[in-house]
Amino acid sequence: MADVIKVADSSEMTLETVRDSLIREEDTIIFSLIERAKYPINVGAYDKTKTAIPECSDSLVEFIIKETEAAQAKCGRYENPEEHPFFPDGLPTSLVPAFNFPKILHPAAASINVNSTLWEVYFAQLLPLITVPGDDGNYASTAVSDLACLQALSRRIHYGKFVAEVKFKESPQEYEPAIRSQDRDALMKLLTFESVEERVKRRVAKKTMLFGQEVSLNDNCDEKKLKIDPAVVSRLYEEWVMPLTKLVEVEYLLRRLD
Amino acid sequence: MADVIKVADSSEMTLETVRDSLIREEDTIIFSLIERAKYPINVGAYDKTKTAIPECSDSLVEFIIKETEAAQAKCGRYENPEEHPFFPDGLPTSLVPAFNFPKILHPAAASINVNSTLWEVYFAQLLPLITVPGDDGNYASTAVSDLACLQALSRRIHYGKFVAEVKFKESPQEYEPAIRSQDRDALMKLLTFESVEERVKRRVAKKTMLFGQEVSLNDNCDEKKLKIDPAVVSRLYEEWVMPLTKLVEVEYLLRRLD
C-alpha cells in the first residue's frame, strides 16, 4: 500500500504520473458503474411525469444533482481544477478557506467543461446498456449512483487538460504550429495513439471482469455472473471516454498560447 | 448478468435472498473503502478549527452529510425501510409520490437506528486504518467518500432487521421464549454462528484482495500494491459490522412481539 499520497505540483507532474492517475480513475469508474447496475433502470428518477417534484421543473435526478453539487461547492469541491460541475450556473461559492492547489494549467483551462455532452451520452446511451428494466422505488439512491458515475467520468475526461499540458511542456515545438494555425485535426492526430487506446480498452475490460465477478471462497470468476458486461465498458472508453478526453485536450491546446 | 432485478415482497424474502443481499453489500462496502483510501486522511474535513464554515458549528463533513441527506430525503431515500439517516433530526419530508415498498418488518423496526455508534467507530477507529497521513485539499470529495462508506455500512448493519424477521418467521418457537423474557444474551446466542462469521471474514478479505489490486494487462495481483489491507476489512467485519448487525437483530427481536 502507498505510504504517502503525493500532491502533484507543476514541477513533478509527468506523463507517467498523469498516466497513473488515469489508470487509477478507471477503477473508480468501473466501481461506480457496477454500483449503478445494482438498481434497475428506475425511470421514476428521470421521468418528470412519474415523479414530479412540487414547484420544480427539474426531474428527480436533476434536482438531487443540483442540490448535491451546491452542498459540495460550498465545501470547496470545484476549487480543485480537476473537478467540474454539471450545473455550473448559479452554483454557490466556497464557504471554506481556499486550499493552495498547485497551479499547473493555463488559465484558459477554466473555460472548458464538456459535462453537458457527457450528461447526454450517459443518460441516453450508456445507462440502458448497464441496467436492466424494472422499478424498485430507490430513485434517490439511483440518482446518487448516477452522480457518482458522472463525477468519475467527468474527472477522467477533464484530466485531459493535464495530459495536454504535460505533453505540451515536454515538446512544445511539436504542438505550436498546429496551435498557431488553430488546426483541430492536426492536434487530434498528434494526440491519437491507436495502440495505447487498444491497451486501455483491453485493460478496462479485464478490470470489469475482475471487479464485477461474484466472489466466493470456493471457486474463481464465474463469467455468467458478471455484474456488468466488460464489452460495454470497452465500448464506453472507445466511443465516449477517450474521444471526449481528446476533445478536452484539443480545446485546451487551442487556447494554450493565448 | 441478471436479466431482471427482483423486488422482494414479504412472501418471497427468504434466508437465501437475505444472505445474497448481505454478500452483494460486501462489494459495495469494499468499493467505497477503496475509494476513500484514494485520499489521505485530510483532517481539514473533520477539524472545525482548520476548516470553519461561517455561521455554522458543524465540521465540514457534518455540514456536507446533513445537506446531502436533506436532498436525498426530499427525494424519498428514507421511505425505504433499508435506509437510515445519520442526522434524522429535522430531516425534510419526501416531496415525491410514495413508492409502495413491501411491508416486511414489524412497525417497531422504525425506531431502531444505530448510526450514531457506526459514526463513532468509522471516524475514530476505521478511518485511520485505511488512510495515509497527508492533506491534498479535497475535503468535499473526502467527505462524500466518507458518506458513501457510512451509507454502505449502515445499509448492511440495519439489514439485520430483515435477517431477524426472516429467522423469526422461519421458526418463531425458537425465539419466543427469549423475546418474552427480554433476554438479550439468549437472543445473541441464538443469532451467533461462529463458522459462518469466519467464512464472512475470509470472503471479505478475498474480495479486498481482488478489488484492491493494481490490474495490468501483463501480470496478476501484486499484493504489495493493494489499495487497502484485507486484514483491516476482516477486522472491520469481526469487530464492528457483524456485532452491530447482530445488535440490530437483537433490538428488533426484543420488540417483535409488541
From TrEMBL, chains A, B:
GO biological process, one term: prephenate(2-) biosynthetic process
PROSITE patterns (alphabetical): CHORISMATE_MUT_3
Reactions it catalyzes: chorismate = prephenate
Family annotation (SUPFAM superfamilies): Chorismate mutase II
Enzyme Commission code(s) on record: 5.4.99.5
This protein's record includes keyword Isomerase: yes
Cellular component terms (Gene Ontology): cytoplasm
Key words, A-Z: Amino-acid biosynthesis, Aromatic amino acid biosynthesis, Cytoplasm, Isomerase
One GO MF term: chorismate mutase activity
Domain Chorismate mutase: 140-249
Enzyme superclass (EC): isomerase
Pathway(s) served: Metabolic intermediate biosynthesis; prephenate biosynthesis; prephenate from chorismate: step 1/1
InterPro entries given in the database record: Chorismate_II_sf, Chorismate_mutase_AroQ_euk, CM_AroQ_sf_eucaryotic, CM_II_prokaryot
Coiled coil: none
Any Pfam family: CM_2
UniProt superkingdom: Eukaryota
Compartments where found: Cytoplasm
Keyword Transmembrane applies: no
Name of protein: Chorismate mutase
Naturally occurring in which organism (per UniProt): Eucalyptus globulus (Tasmanian blue gum)
